[in-house]
Amino acid sequence: MNPDIVRWSYAAASGALLALAFPPYSVWPAAVLAPALLLRAMRRAETPQQAGDLGALAGFLFAALSMPWLRFVFGPFAAGLWAFFALGPALFGVLLKRLQGRGDWLWVAAAGVLWAGMEAARAHLPGLACPWLSLGYAFAPAGPLLQAASVIGLYGLSAAAVAGGAALALAAEGKRIPAGALAIVAGLAWGLGERRLELKPQGRPVSVALVQDESYDVERLAAMTPRDAELVVWPEYQAGVPGGMVDRYREHLAGLTSGRKGVLVVGAATVDEQAPFENFAWVLGSDGALLGRHDKQHPIPFMEGRLKGHSDPRPVATPLGPVGVQICYDLDFEDGSRRLASRGARILAVPNLDPASWGPLQHSQHSGMAPLRAVETGLWVAKAASSGDSMLIDPRGRVTARLGFAGRGVARGTALLSDGGLTPYVAWGWLVVPLSLLALAAAVADALFGALRERAFLVYPPSPLGVEAES
User: Fold this and answer.
1) Beta strand spans in 169-262 (E)
2) CA-CA to 411 of 20 to 30 Å: which in 33, 51, 188, 199?
3) Shared domain check, 437 and 342
4) Which of 42, 97, 37 is nearest to 62 (CA)?
5) Together in a domain, 165 and 285
6) What is the pLDDT of residues 248-279, one digit of tens each?
């Protein structure tokens, strides 16, 4: 068969398999098999540019098949966003091809590290930051393997998946030692993960209520709020606060929700176009007093352009203990929840807004990210979404209470708040992103210098005169 047809077929199949790894299918083994197909195609590529083209095809198909709902949000401009997602795999292909031939073990390790670096770069690109569909999120349904996130985090899972795919690509060439070694590591990780799942979370039980409603009507949400819950979370943007009336509005809200015995976390925003736009959450005591406030850390690209992100999240002291707050898109990133955990948070409260008009696929993909934050931090996550999925998640990533897409009501459950130690990832995870970005930058520099050397050789080839003179 024509080698070009084989390469492009592998790349296309890889893009389709990557989509299969995520909701609504959630076939998590595809997160390893898809990179294997792509890397098999890249190894057969004749040039780095061709390897980059194969990566671009796989990346575009992956994004288009996984996120057709972007058309509901951005219309025809969705194709541009799918193309943006293709840039990372394209760069990955170019860089990795240049490392081929420098040793199989180096190539396998570089595949994992460069993919993680590519995802981290996409999540930190100014104005376009987006961690959506990072490969590690595909392991949310794989309970035992998911527990590795408590040590290596989201990008560590992504790196492990792609390194596993690289080892399988080598095995297809008869080089089976890397695949065998990584299979042993995966087996150990699975066994240790099962043991971690058997350990029951410990701590003081706290009753939690997650109010799910997309009316933006505070009186309606106040009527839905259970008075007996110790922690109540409302969705994002539900309280529209007029400019210059912050204190009066909060007092009004305290009156509407009087009679509560616990802490209330309210998603709010300013509605005065003349004032700076603010997206924040109030944390209110049982008497309506303001205990603290969290301002959204990560604005959504193209949607919250007026919003200035808050870069220093801190837990709010409450009668329940320190409560960490993340607002919607904040929870998609690993940095905010990790910082809050390192600063003593005992639970993460998450006001969230996903409009029902975006459809169930968008909701299921967004909901699939939250378990990673619970495992990374070792904290319970209480997420109240406007139209689903509202979820209470334990520190092992298991959903203990849920209200699904387009439902209206209250999801109730019990969280266990403990003063337990930090997960390894909370302690050292701050190193992961800088190191992966540094590795990516080093590979880019190596590729650039290599290309310059090759160009200089073509422009000024060695003279054969010296050879003739010696002979």
Assistant:
1) 204-212, 231-233, 239-241
2) 199
3) no
4) 37
5) no
6) 898 899 899 989 999 999 999 988 777 788 99
Half-sphere exposure of 100 (CA within 13 A, CB side): 21
| CATH, residue 350 | 3.60.110.10
pTM: 0.93
Please check whether residue 327 lies inside any domain of the structure: yes
Specify the amino acid at residue 159.
A
pLDDT tens per residue across span 64-122: 999 999 998 999 999 999 999 999 999 999 999 999 999 999 999 999 999 999 999 99
285 and 191 share a domain? no
Give the whole-angstrom CA distance, residue 454 versus residue 29.
Answer: 40
> Tokens standing for 375?
């495992």
What distance in Å separates the CA atoms of residue 58 and residue 270, rounded to the nearest whole number? Answer: 41
How many domains does one find in the chain? 2
Cis peptide before 35 (omega within 30 of 0): no
Give the residue carrying structure tokens 């540094």. 438
Q: Are 348 and 365 in contact (CB under 8 A)?
A: no
> Can you name the residues that pair with 323 across neighbouring β-strands?
316, 347
Structural domain boundaries, residue 60: 3-199+431-457
Instruction: Look at residue 292 and tell me if it is in a domain.
Output: yes
Helices 432-459 + 78-99 axis angle, to 10: 70
